[in-house]
EAL domain-containing protein (Deefgea piscis), 285 residues
Amino acid sequence: AKEMGKNTYQFYSIDMNMAHQMSHLNLENALRFALERQQLQLWYQPQFDLATGQLAGLECLIRWRHPQLGLISPLEFIPIAEENGLIIPIGDWVLNEACQCVQRWRQQGFVVPQIAVNLSVRQFRPDLLLSQVTQALQNSGLPAHVLELEVTESLIMTRINEAIAILQQLKQLGVKVAIDDFGTGHSSLSQLKNLPLDTLKIDRSFIEGIPEQADDVVIAETIVILAQKLGLNVVAEGVETQAQMQVLRDMGCACAQGYFYSKPLSAPDMENMLISMAKQVTEVY
Ligand code: C2E
Ligand code: MG
Ligand code: MG
Ligand code: MG
């Protein structure tokens, strides 16, 4: 029985591996058509100013609505798109779609101070990125200062000289730059000082332990102080409870986003939220 169990296990694990590889191949093929078949969607998660409670901005997060598999997470298909280069047209679509959608909301009278767009390391090329961003702003009419690009610290630190040049050019366009998942990569603090950045986003893994785990509270507070001293905005990611929100607000963290406020919403649901927030404002006055 033991022998059989072993065989069964081996067979099963080979089978699973094949299934995994096949689905990877299928996914890769299907992803090639996802753009033209309009299966990609942007969802939006609001970010709030902790001092005033006002909407500070939105982060757009891509989803793939596959006809058979349903809604697929970016964690599953962005790595595939990065491997095969599809991230370039997909990233371009994301930039244009986000700028257009938010500019439409602004023209309808909704106050959306900022839209944050995630960038892949593959997009972070001087020849490519600047013309893509310029085009997206021109096509939509979105003011440059409303757009914030999110990059990771590893992306910046591994190609520091190229990164500095690109960041400086983005700054000249008037676009903002945030470091996503801050604290999980390997930032050199001396480099950080020299980079033209606007925002640090405290990684969700540090927010998770607040308020119970003292070390997480200390790390979050240290990042908040670092941001303040460097003159940067700071956003806490993954805020799920009121207790977390209060601790972050009391330590002077500027902004927060997370399930406590709202999960990422489809564009129509986001628009409904903007409508109900606008109603609340008019009811107060
Ligand atoms: P990220 O940029 O760090 O985005 C935050 C992730 O945390 C999102 O997952 C969001 O849905 C999730 N999240 C937000 N609040 C909470 C919370 O309170 N609790 C928990 N547990 N999770 C929360 P999502 O949408 O699955 O995106 C995952 C990652 O995929 C993103 O991490 C980003 O790195 C990447 N990504 C998403 N959209 C794009 C895109 O358009 N382009 C590129 N290159 N990458 C993208
Ligand atoms: Mg992000
Ligand atoms: Mg993040
Ligand atoms: Mg991330």
User: Anything to note?
Assistant: The beta strands are 40-49, 55-66, 70-72, 115-118, 147-152, 176-182, 199-202, 233-236, 255-256, 265-266.
